[in-house]
């Protein structure tokens, strides 16, 4: 097998493992992990120095970043939502089937 095919197989296995872990995670654990991620982001120099922040709308199994958006607004950072309306339907239906 080529290195490229090995890497593709490894990535597929890692994605499957991560999906399984996410499905097994309790809401409380997901919330705690979201808080840890937010704390880390707030201490990054790049966050502190940023004038504009691009946010995405997370899927239910992704970190809750709503508080980061609120804090960014209070810090007078320009908020820009990340979305591609033409692709969203395809992307969301793909992920909904996988998670």
Listing every helix as H and every strand as E from the N terminus to the C terminus, the arrangement reads HHHEHEH
Secondary structure class reads: mainly alpha
- Give the overall silhouette: extended
Overall structural domain count: 1
Provide the spatial order of strands within the biggest beta sheet: 1-2
Radius of gyration: 17 Å
Poorly predicted parts: 95-99
Number of helices, counting only DSSP H or I runs of 4 residues or more:
5
What's the story with the biggest beta sheet?
2 strands, parallel
What is the rounded distance between the termini?
A: 29 Å
How much of the sequence lies in strands comes to: 5-15%
Mean pLDDT: 82
Q: Count the E strands.
A: 2
The residue fraction in helices comes out at 55-70%
Give a structural overview.
The longest helix is centred in the N-terminal third of the chain and has 22 residues, at 3-24. This protein is mainly alpha-helical. It is extended, with a radius of gyration of 17 Å. It has helices spanning 3-24, 27-42, 45-49, 66-74, 85-98; strands spanning 52-55, 78-81. Helix content is 67%, strand content 8%. The protein has one domain. The model is unreliable at 95-99 (pLDDT under 50).
């Amino acid at each position: 097998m080529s290195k490229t095919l090995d890497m593709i197989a490894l990535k597929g296995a890692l994605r499957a493992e991560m999906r399984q872990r996410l499905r097994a995670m309790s809401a409380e654990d997901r919330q705690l992990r979201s808080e840890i991620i937010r704390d880390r982001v707030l201490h990054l120099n790049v966050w502190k120095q940023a004038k504009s922040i691009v946010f995405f709308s997370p899927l239910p199994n992704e970190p809750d970043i709503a508080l980061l958006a609120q804090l960014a607004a209070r810090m007078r950072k320009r908020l820009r939502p990340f979305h591609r309306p033409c692709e969203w339907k395809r992307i969301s239906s793909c992920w909904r089937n996988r998670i």
